[in-house]
């Protein structure tokens, strides 16, 4: 890790039902959308998976089966969680991340943007693969290349912050996620073979006993300098996500009802929504949770994936130099 390490305390007002709904939705979306799990929803239901319910899934996947892939969900599911966390600017993460990148690359991104959103982008996600293959957004740091024309360079970064400026031109800032071993990101060697020369930053969890979150930079050879943000010990969104995966182990072991009581304040409401929609198709269950908990809907995510931009090519330089630092 190069440069001065800086600690960062998130601006958190509370951990209510909407906060925990992001974690619950991330587990379900990982099961439904991610293709690398041993018992992902699509492989368990080879035919007509869109109409299958959690009740039908639990008839084929036990609590023990879920426990075997829980570590993978704790890692890969963080992509879906952090996409929501950043999109909602929970804890001020979105504004801070963009601000840090602005400082690192001396570009003024956020002040000229009318809106921004974070989306899963890795090719092991069905949704992410669709985004990489279809999006007209421009890749930050690429000198004006479009996402759909840069697949070999950006197929591995896990999430992408889409910044839409006042001229409705989309620019994608790509990021690597490590939900289990984020400490690897400190080393240049980690970034070798990631196929992400346009990776602008990394974010992950490192359980090393420290209480502070911190950020710094890594500068691999022949790639852009990376911002790295690490959640460490103490209370943080990724540690809470790991707690929620344990609750799901009980869900697939006992079913709804027996497992619905929880000692985690704020988690009860999204769990009750799962119980209510236990026999409904999983996409409907996710839509219910997202609708009731004010999270961005699947329809809005599809719109973000397919939204076109004008044909004029712009580069990151079009943002202009930064006039001042925000941190």
* Beta strand %: 15-25%
The average pLDDT score comes to 80
Total tally of structural domains: 1
Q: What is the chain-wise order of helices and strands?
A: EHHHHHEHEHEEEEEHHHH
Helix content: 25-40%
Main sheet, how many strands, which sense, barrel? 8 strands, mixed
Q: Shape from CA axes? A: globular
Which residues form runs of ≥5 with pLDDT under 50? 305-327
Number of helices: 11
Our Rg estimate from Cα atoms comes to: 19 Å
Question: Distance between termini?
Answer: 19 Å
Strand segment count: 8
Summing up helix and strand content along with how strands pair, one would put the structural category as: alpha/beta
Please give a structural write-up.
By secondary structure, this protein is an alpha/beta fold. It has helices at residues 17-33, 41-44, 54-58, 63-87, 93-105, 126-134, 151-154, 237-254, 268-276, 282-292, 298-306; strands at residues 2-8, 113-120, 138-139, 159-165, 170-178, 199-205, 213-218, 226-231. It has one domain. The chain has 11 helices and 8 strands. Strands 1, 2, 3, 4, 5, 6, 7 and 8 form an 8-stranded mixed sheet that branches. A hairpin with a 4-residue loop joins strand 4 (159-165) and strand 5. The chain starts with a strand and ends in a 21-residue tail after the last helix. The model is unreliable at 305-327 (pLDDT under 50).
């Amino acid at each position: 890790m190069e440069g001065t390490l800086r600690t960062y305390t998130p601006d958190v007002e509370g951990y209510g039902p909407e906060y925990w709904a992001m974690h619950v939705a991330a587990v379900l979306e990982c099961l439904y959308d991610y293709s690398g799990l041993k018992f992902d929803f699509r492989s368990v239901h080879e035919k007509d998976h869109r109409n299958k319910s959690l009740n039908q899934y639990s008839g084929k996947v036990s609590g023990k089966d879920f426990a075997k892939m829980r570590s993978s969900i704790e890692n890969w599911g963080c992509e879906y969680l952090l996409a929501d966390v950043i999109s909602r600017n929970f804890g001020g993460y979105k504004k801070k991340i963009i601000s840090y990148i602005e400082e690192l690359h001396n570009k003024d991104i956020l002040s000229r943007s009318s809106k921004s959103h974070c989306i899963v982008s890795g090719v092991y996600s069905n949704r992410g693969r669709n985004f990489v293959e279809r999006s007209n957004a421009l890749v930050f740091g690429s000198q004006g290349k479009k996402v759909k024309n840069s697949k070999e360079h950006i197929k591995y970064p896990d999430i992408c912050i889409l910044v839409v400026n006042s001229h409705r031109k989309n620019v994608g800032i790509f990021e690597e996620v490590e939900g289990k071993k984020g400490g690897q990101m400190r080393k240049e060697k980690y970034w070798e073979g990631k196929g992400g020369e346009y990776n602008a930053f990394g974010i992950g969890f490192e359980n090393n006993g420290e209480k502070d979150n911190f950020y710094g930079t890594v500068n691999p050879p022949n790639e852009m300098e990376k911002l790295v943000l690490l959640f460490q010990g103490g209370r943080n969104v990724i540690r809470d996500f790991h707690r929620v995966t344990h609750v799901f182990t009980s869900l697939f072991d006992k079913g709804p009802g027996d497992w619905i009581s929880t000692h985690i304040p704020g988690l009860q409401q999204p769990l009750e929504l799962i119980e209510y929609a236990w026999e409904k198709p999983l996409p409907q269950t996710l839509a219910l949770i997202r609708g009731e908990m004010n999270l961005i809907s699947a329809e809005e995510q599809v719109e973000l994936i397919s939204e076109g931009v004008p044909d004029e090519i712009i580069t990151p330089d079009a943002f202009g130099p930064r006039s001042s630092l925000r941190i």
